[in-house]
Specification:
alpha/beta; 22 helices; 3-methyladenine DNA Glycosylase II, Chain A, domain 3; elongated; Beta-Lactamase
């Protein structure tokens, strides 16, 4: 299942998404970017940077609307990040808005976080793990399982609050209800629906963009609604999970002492730095809250990051939410009902049907088994793009990969295309262009709107007896009549095939003068047709001489004809008319040709 979908876009030679992807989980095929699902951690950075908006969410919205239309009891698990992201005056208005849309209950995902916090505190008290990395963030979990499998042993073997909440709800109300998670995270969708270890507890995932669009579609304004209570007990400090250090706050609020050092890390680059450090054995005896999004879930990929300050949201949430643990008696032990609201009691499953709940999750090595090229195979790929020596490897990163060798490995593994090397393609295009300019016998020159010469090819230098540097220091009117170039610049209308004679250069040219819109410049291509013109003149002269000879023949024939006519008594008028017409016809054709040449 694709969580991020791609639509066809003009992403040729862009590679911005590859540059943004820290794990290089994007391939390019036929100049179109595609997600490598088995390598993607769903951080959403590629969606954020794509200038073509070519990447979109795969939406469950229509499926959720279908649940409601069929009258299926559907419960929302609302991520606590709503407190800093959605626009309302009082939290109960969000509850009211969701119930207006048709949801049977609205419960806070922080209810599930209560059980996750309990599991973390159990691990801290047991003290058997050398390090403990929190496993609330599915993108962080994917990063470790796929790219740092040797650190899986440090991952807390605990489900995320979303999955814990789904388990609690299904245990309380039965499988006949549908549970929909609403939050700011893309990775939650794969965790909920595409991971066999956690599938079946969450039936659909919506993000805040979809929720806000749905409200607008239904004409619902949250700030105008009355407040309604949540259908779960108060999770207190566990509402801080979505902000950086929120998990630590919940763990510390429990009040139990342990020997672990505690700190939090957020942001992709910081996360990889930490994991690299752990691989070297630098970190020991630590409890680490790890989140891929800068600032935590409040800056998730399904959030308008430009309009939300993670610093303000963090301060506001920490000010609103007391750092005190929830009342344990209000929460459902594995087989107890707990204290439920009236609407919850309507769906409540009988006590005897409830199960003992486990919030454990086994993490594993999911690292890709890609073929690794030999040194010679890498060198062979590099040679194809002109990198025959180490100094040719610019390592500019324009293709999205940090080094030329890294990109060559990606080509070998069919993740990248050979000609994604922008410097090579630029050099190739430039050398081809220079080759054409320098080898063509035609004069080629380009001028800017002020008639300043900005390009002057080898043939032009030869005819005008100027060096390239001298030519670029001149204006066109210093060399030739520039009126045609000015007209093309002014009218944007091309002049094609015009014959112009330059007496001082001793040449006749056929000129194409063309406006170049992108460059706002005028290109002139002059073909030297002097030899052709000379040959044409010689041909004309030969024809004129032939006509004069014909005239002499006509005159002699007339004399003879008159003598014969005098002897025979016949007129020569008809012969004269015929021959004269022939002469005039030939002369007329040659005159038209000569006028065309002139």
């Amino acid at each position: 299942m694709n969580v991020i979908d791609f639509k066809e876009a003009k992403c040729k030679n862009c590679y911005k998404c590859i540059r943004a992807c820290e794990v290089k989980a994007i391939t390019v095929k036929n100049e179109q970017a595609q997600i490598l699902n088995d390598k993607c951690i769903l951080c959403g950075h590629c969606m954020e940077v794509c200038p073509q908006n070519a990447k979109t969410f795969s939406s469950d919205l229509e499926m959720v609307k279908g649940f409601l239309a069929q009258g299926i009891p559907t419960i929302i698990s609302l991520a606590p990040s709503y407190l800093g992201i959605l626009k309302f005056q009082k939290p109960g208005q969000v509850v009211a808005g969701l119930k207006r849309l048709g949801f049977s209950q609205v419960r806070e995902t922080a209810e599930g976080a209560v059980y996750v916090t309990e599991e973390y505190n159990r691990l801290l008290q047991e003290g058997t793990m050398e390090n403990i990395i929190t496993t609330c963030c599915p993108s962080a979990n994917d990063l470790i399982e796929i790219y740092y499998p040797e650190l899986v042993k440090y991952m807390a073997p605990v489900v995320s609050p979303m999955i814990a909440h789904g388990k609690v709800i299904k245990n309380l109300f039965g499988d006949q209800v549908k549970v929909v998670f609403l939050g700011p995270c893309l990775a939650k969708k794969r965790e909920a629906l595409n991971d066999a270890r956690t599938a079946g507890y969450i039936d659909a995932v919506l993000h805040f963009f979809e929720f806000e669009d749905w409200l607008r579609e239904e004409g619902i304004e949250l700030s105008e609604l009355p407040e309604e209570p949540f259908d779960n007990p108060n999770p207190e400090v566990n509402r801080l999970y979505p902000v950086s250090s929120g998990v630590l706050s919940a763990v510390v609020a429990d009040g139990k002492q342990d020997s672990y050092r505690k700190f939090y890390v957020h942001g992709m680059k910081n996360a990889t730095d930490l994991l690299d450090s752990m691989n070297r054995g630098d970190i020991k005896g630590s409890f680490i809250e790890l989140n891929i999004c800068n600032g935590g879930c409040i800056k998730g990929p399904a959030v308008d990051r430009e309009s939300i300050s993670r610093f303000k949201v963090k301060l506001d949430m920490e000010e609103q939410i007391a750092k005190v643990p929830p009342k344990k008696e209000e929460f459902m032990p594995p087989k107890a009902a707990g204290e439920l609201t009236a609407s919850a009691k309507l769906l409540e499953k009988p006590q005897e049907e409830r199960e003992e709940l486990s919030f454990a999750k086994a993490f594993q090595d999911r690292s890709p088994k890609d073929a690794v090229p030999t040194e010679e195979e890498i060198r062979a790929i590099l040679r194809k793009i002109g990198k025959t020596e180490p100094e040719h490897e610019l390592n500019c990163g324009a293709c999205g990969y940090s080094t030329c060798r890294e990109k060559a490995v990606a080509v070998f593994q069919k993740k990248a295309e050979l000609y994604m090397c922008i410097p090579y393609m630029h050099e190739r295009a430039e050398s081809m262009s220079n080759f054409v300019l320098d080898t063509t016998p035609n004069i080629i020159l380009v001028v800017d709107p002020d008639m300043k010469i900005i390009e002057f090819n080898h043939a032009a230098r030869k005819y005008f007896h100027l060096t390239y540097a001298e030519a670029l220091d001149k204006y066109l009117f210093e060399l030739i009549d520039h009126s045609d170039f000015e007209e093309v610049m002014r009218t944007k209308q091309n002049i094609l095939g015009k014959k112009v004679r330059y007496e001082d250069l001793g040449i006749t040219t056929s000129q194409d003068i063309v406006y170049m819109k992108k460059q706002d410049a005028v290109l002139g291509i002059f073909q030297d047709i002097t030899k052709e013109e000379e040959a044409e003149k010689q041909s004309y002269q030969l024809k004129v001489e032939t006509i004069e000879m014909a005239q002499a023949v006509i005159d002699r024939q007339m004399t003879v004809a008159q003598e014969i006519a005098g002897l025979l008594g016949e007129t020569t008028a008809e012969t004269k008319v015929t021959l004269t017409k022939l002469r005039d016809m030939i002369l007329g054709e040659e005159t038209d040709i000569q006028e065309g040449i002139g």
